[in-house]
Write a structure and sequence with these properties.
The complex is a heterodimer of chains A (297) and B (285). Chain A is α+β, with helices and mostly antiparallel strands and 297 residues long. Chain A contains 11 helices and 4 strands, in the order ααβαβααβαβααααα. Helices cover 72% and strands 8% of the residues of chain A. The two termini of chain A are 25 Å apart. Chain B has 285 residues and is of the alpha/beta class. In chain B, 34% of the residues lie in helices and 21% in strands. Chain B is globular and about 80 Å long. Classes of the chains: A alpha+beta (297), B alpha/beta (285). Chains A and B meet through helix 8 of A and helix 3 and helix 4 of B.
Chain lengths: 297, 285
């Protein structure tokens, strides 16, 4: 329709009411900055939690007199179980070398290698680890009470530790999700409130427009365009600041600290798009909805 | 011993012969309607506010095309209620309002804006769009109806010339005097040449000199065939212009005179008669 007219109207009214418009822009800027910092943190946390969960495993210790044939048989049995993603074999020699590094003096005193061959069994999903354990150990319902193979000496999964790990990582993920939702909600409310205030200051204008016979949409569109401009400008500024901070501070750190670099965040571009869309949408829709109150004039 | 007997007798004779200004309780004939159905018709309209106050009480009157009507009465008598009912800012509690033959209650909420474009409204506080020039203020009324840039360029300077604002095209309201602001308001109300112009206390915030100018403007607009309804308590103006007067009191219409004055005129005989009667409130029309 007359988009050009509405655009001009929007720009004019922004120039006229500079202070409220700037307030709205500042609000969007601040909330987008907070979100822009918070979201990567949440992702890193979730990533760390997931990688911890990923290390959850079942250790299967073979009899010390097991030979290569037994090893191979047990390996196939383990792979054949449900919920088993992969199986890693650590021979007694490798195990000895690993452990000897942690405590060389103690191991030097040992004559022979007391360590057994070990299979690290990784479940496809960390929450299935206990099921896998009970399958191998035969402790589940319908199990024989004995490990599935006579060559298996012991099945260990550090049950209480695993339980704790699962619980804690779950809690971390849920807390992060709840915090994100609350933060997003707070941002929306803050932006909407600032917009409402700036519209309240202009309710006389809206009243006059109604009296002269302007339809609701004729009044609404310039305000919504204003919302789009303010919202996207605020978000863009936030993105620029975040980007500058990232390049100046984080990238040099990442080369030294693997904790920051390792959990791959969703990528800066996607964050940019999300922030831009959020800022613009909330401002535009907020303007349109806030006007409803005053269009009741 | 003030007057001699003969003088007294003469006076009495003169009074009995003197042409009587008719008893005000008679209905005066309204101004002849220029063609067809009335522009405005109120039938038994009552407006009760949620607070319990009565805005209008069984108001019935009609106004024909091209008439110039004053709506007078003290504050709270219902003048503003009539205006607000006419622009559909309020809905009547009962009764029918017809404008140009259309029943206002039939107009749906989303059509109110279109209805309002046919009525020019002028208010006591001017109600201009702040921080916009005179030109833009008037142009807005045209933009709302989808006027093209060329139409606006033609019509706006014209109407501003008619209202004497040619030199103030690019001023903003805060740079104008009260009288000038009201002219802008009138220009905006009239730029679309609506058939009906409403003015709610147009001279309320203006000095007597400027009030005269404003009323002259409204009169000129009326001369073009526009029906004009002015709510006012500018006594001098009503008396000078001698137009149809609708008087409201506590929501009821108590007078409808074709060429009335702000206050009803009485002969001394009527005065005497009234003084001798027990106190009653005069009946409505």
């Amino acid at each position: 329709m007359k988009l050009g007219f509405f655009l001009k109207e929007a720009i004019r009214s922004m120039r006229r009411s500079a202070a409220p418009s700037f307030a709205a822009l500042a609000t969007v800027l601040v909330t987008m900055l907070v979100l822009g910092v918070f979201i990567p943190i949440v992702q890193a946390t979730n990533g760390a939690a997931n990688s911890v969960r990923g290390r959850v495993e079942v250790d299967v210790y073979m009899n010390t007199n097991a030979n290569a044939g037994d090893d191979a048989r047990v390996r196939n049995e383990l792979l054949g179980l449900s919920h088993v993603k992969s199986v890693q074999f650590v021979s007694k020699e490798q195990a000895y070398k690993q452990q000897a590094q942690t405590d060389p003096q103690a191991y030097a005193l040992l004559g022979s290698n007391p360590l057994p061959d070990t299979y690290h069994v990784y479940p496809d999903n960390p929450s299935n680890v206990l099921a896998v354990h009970s399958e191998i150990a035969g402790t589940g319902s319908g199990g024989s009470g004995q490990p599935i193979d006579t060559s298996i000496a012991k099945v260990s999964n550090k049950q209480s530790d695993t339980q704790k790990i699962l619980e804690v990582t779950n809690l971390v993920t849920i807390t992060a999700a709840v915090l994100t939702v609350l933060l997003v909600l707070a941002s929306i409310l803050l932006i909407a409130n600032t917009i409402r205030l700036s519209l309240y200051a202009r309710r006389r204008e809206v009243e006059v427009m109604k009296l002269v016979g302007a339809t609701d949409w004729f009044i609404r569109v310039p305000f919504m365009i204003e919302g789009v401009i303010v919202g996207s400008a605020g978000a863009l500024l936030a993105i620029v600041i975040l980007g500058a901070t990232k390049i100046a501070l984080l990238d040099p750190l990442a080369s030294n600290w693997t904790l920051i670099a390792a959990p791959r965040t969703i990528g800066f571009t996607f964050l940019v798009v999300v922030l831009l869309a959020a800022g613009t949408l909330v401002s535009a829709v907020g303007s349109g909805l806030s006007l409803r109150r005053f269009l009741r004039v | 011993m003030a007057i001699s007997e003969s003088q007294h007798r003469t006076r009495r004779r003169r009074e009995s012969e003197a042409p009587d200004i008719p008893d005000v309780s008679e209905v005066r004939p309204v101004a002849p309607r220029l063609g067809g159905a009335p522009v405005l018709e109120f039938r038994g309209v009552t407006k009760r506010y949620p607070s319990g106050d009565i805005g209008l009480d069984q108001a019935t009157f009609s106004i024909g095309r091209g008439e110039f009507v004053f709506l007078v009465g003290s504050t709270g008598s219902g003048k503003s209620t009539v205006m607000r009912l006419l622009i559909k800012e309020l809905e009547p509690s009962s009764g029918t309002i017809r404008v140009a033959g259309h029943d206002l209650s039939m107009i749906k909420r989303n059509r109110i804006a279109y209805y309002r474009r046919n009525i020019g409204v002028v208010f006591q506080d001017f109600k201009l769009l702040p921080a916009r020039t005179v030109y833009d203020n008037v142009a807005y009324a045209l933009q709302v109806t989808g006027g093209t840039r060329r139409e606006i360029r033609d019509k706006v300077p014209d109407i501003l010339r008619l209202t004497g604002l040619s030199l103030k095209l690019h001023n903003t309201p805060d740079q104008l005097s009260g009288g000038e602001q009201q002219r802008v308001s009138i220009a905006r109300a009239f730029v679309n040449h609506p058939p009906l112009l409403l003015a709610d206390e147009p001279t309320g915030n203006l000095d007597p000199e400027t009030s005269v100018d404003i009323m002259r403007l409204l009169y000129r607009i009326n001369r073009t065939g526009t029906t004009v309804l002015v709510a006012t308590h500018d006594q001098a103006m009503v008396d000078k212009m001698r137009r149809r007067v609708l008087e409201l009191s506590q929501g009821r219409i108590i007078r409808d005179e074709a060429t009335g004055l702000y206050t009803r005129d009485e002969t001394t005989r009527e005065f005497a008669r009234r003084m001798r009667q027990p106190p009653t409130r005069p009946d409505g029309v």
